[in-house]
Design goal:
The protein has 379 residues and is mainly alpha-helical. 75% of the residues lie in helices and 3% in strands. 13% of the residues are buried.
């Protein structure tokens, strides 16, 4: 009984405790504000993260923009190149307008039949003003030069026959004079000036007066003036030595060369200057090594000097050939100009293009053959 009373007492004692605890447990819904705070904190954190991401995106976008700005900057070397193009822009425009356009016009004329019309004739054919009327005729002008014209081909053969020996003589003479002028002697500067003087003078009109191609007003007749510079040195020398049995063709060639000494000197100024500059580029170490090895002057010239100046030999050869082909006293050039003076612009243009193609072919052959024997220091 006592135990039951104790248990009942305990239960009675615990019941009030539980009943007392029940009112204390009623305020349990209070954590709701905590959830709101945490939700608020979560939203703030999300907004902060979004803001950080936006800042990162902006930074990345700024970096990308900076990269784009860096790529749009012009490099220094390219900028210098643009400056160079700017400086040659006027030359390029002048070349396009004053050279390429006339070349294309002459090519068109060569394929047409041309007529020079006055204003009345121009109105009849539908032109607004007087000028050159062109009518397409294909390659008739080119075929005419080879099949109908009996003058062009002989003159072309004569020009080619004269250019070959003259080029060889000019090359040998200019190299010989350049080697002499490269030595140290008194009056060397004056001698260089004398040989280079023809380059400074207007060679076209002056040499034409000397050769008798123009009248020399106020001095004398050009033909008489030109005889002062002609001499039959070979004939007189052979007669003095009693030599009469040489080949007539050989003596004629030598006589023509020596009797035209003035033209030889006149046409060698540029070549002498180029050879002289090439001789001065030979390194002193090569000369010292050759002298130590006991090389003679003859061996030094052929084994050291000649290979070193071989690129300039090719340059001089090309220059000399072109200069001879376009010389005013060239028979083909005279014939082409004569056709243009006769108002045959189409046929004259066709002859000029044929001559241009022949000159280009000759230069190509020369460059291919001579370039095999040219020594380049970088090789």
């Amino acid at each position: 009984m006592s135990e039951e009373l104790e248990l009942s007492g305990k239960s009675e004692n615990t019941a009030p405790a539980e009943s007392a605890a029940e009112p204390a447990a009623e305020p349990s819904p209070a954590p709701a504000p905590v959830q709101r705070v945490s939700a608020h904190n979560t939203a703030a954190a999300a907004a902060l993260n979004a803001a950080n991401e936006e800042v990162d995106i902006r930074r990345k976008g700024g970096e990308k923009a900076q990269v784009k700005i860096k790529t749009t900057k012009i490099p220094y070397e390219k900028k210098k190149g643009l400056y160079g193009y700017g400086f040659i822009a006027l030359w390029f425009i002048g070349t396009l307008w004053l050279f390429i356009m006339p070349v294309l016009t002459s090519l068109w004329y060569s394929l047409c039949n041309t007529k020079l019309l006055d204003k009345a004739g121009a109105l009849e054919v539908g032109m607004t003003s007087a000028g050159i009327y062109t009518e397409w005729n294909g390659f008739y002008n080119f075929t005419k030069a080879f099949t109908i014209d009996t003058t062009f081909l002989p003159k072309l053969g004569t020009a080619l026959g004269e250019i070959l020996p003259n080029t060889i003589v000019i090359m040998i003479f200019s190299l010989f004079i350049a080697v002499i002028l490269n030595q140290k002697f008194r009056g060397r500067t004056l001698a260089r000036a004398i040989f280079f003087l023809p380059v400074l003078i207007a060679t076209g009109p002056v040499i034409s007066v000397i050769n008798g191609d123009m009248t020399s007003q106020g001095v004398s007749d050009a033909a008489q003036f030109s005889t002062l510079f002609k001499t039959d040195l070979v004939t007189e020398l052979m007669e003095f030595l009693g030599i009469y049995n040489l080949n007539q063709t050989f003596t004629d060639v030598i006589k023509d060369i020596t009797s035209d000494v003035l033209n030889l000197v006149w046409n060698s100024g540029i070549q002498i200057l180029i050879f002289l500059s090439a001789l001065q580029t030979i390194p002193p170490s090569a000369k010292e090594a050759a002298s130590i090895e006991g090389a003679t002057a003859w061996e030094f010239f052929w084994k050291i000097t000649f290979p070193y100046i071989s690129p300039m030999i090719l340059s001089n050869l090309v220059y000399t050939v072109i200069d001879a082909f376009v010389s005013t006293d060239n028979v083909v050039m005279e014939y082409v100009l004569a056709q243009s003076r006769n108002w045959e612009y189409g046929y004259s243009a066709a002859l000029a293009w044929i001559y241009f193609a022949i000159v280009g072919a000759c230069l190509g052959i020369i460059c291919v053959i001579i370039n095999r024997f040219v020594y380049y220091e970088n090789d």
